[in-house]
Design goal:
With 174 residues, the protein is mainly beta. The strands form four sheets. It has a five-stranded mixed beta sheet, with no helix packed on it. The protein is globular.
């Protein structure tokens, strides 16, 4: 059995071209950084930076036409792994640099996609934007601490969740 591997290298992002190439099971795949107004970190360091409270998603479409419920990239990591590089040297106390997995889009009670309060179909285990869904916080970190938190939700009705465990069951490393 071969192991699945998803490698995220977002250092190639530049403001004029939101596309990013990832490797999935040894094959290159083009995705798009969609969401917040991100900017290149610098000409020499590569990478990108996000404004405070910014979010960026990996999508299968460029997002120029706005958000749609079918644009979000969803890898199958069952039996596999994910790896990424992140520079936390500038993420001081009070900053939360996060990498997390959620199953977007969120859904309404009638089973249709819910655009949420921000219009980006966001959902999470804290009902940010008004929509619940399971969440796996792989990394919530800064220069002083690293925290991982799995979140579970009550059984859904179709694809709609009524409540999740907002605090999760996490482990912190200080």
């Amino acid at each position: 059995m071969s192991m699945k591997l998803l490698t995220l290298t977002l250092a190639s992002l530049v403001q004029a071209d939101p596309s990013v190439t990832i490797q999935e099971n040894g094959k290159n795949k083009t995705l798009y950084a969609v969401g917040s107004k991100w900017a290149p970190a610098s000409q020499t360091s590569g990478g990108f930076s996000l404004p405070h409270s910014g979010r960026t998603y990996l999508g299968t479409k460029d997002g120029n036409g706005g958000f749609s419920p079918d644009m979000f990239y969803s890898p199958n990591l069952l039996g596999g792994s994910i790896e990424w590089d992140m520079d936390l040297s500038q993420a001081g106390c009070g900053c939360n640099a996060a990498l997390y997995l959620i199953s977007m889009p969120g859904y309404k009670q009638d089973g249709s996609p819910d655009p949420s309060q921000g219009g980006d179909y966001y959902c999470d285990a804290n009902q940010v934007g008004g929509v619940w869904c399971p969440e796996m916080d792989i990394m919530e970190a800064n220069t002083y601490a690293w925290h991982m938190t799995p979140h579970t939700c009550d059984s859904p009705s179709g694809k709609h969740y009524y409540h999740c465990d907002q605090g999760g069951c996490g482990k912190a490393i200080h």
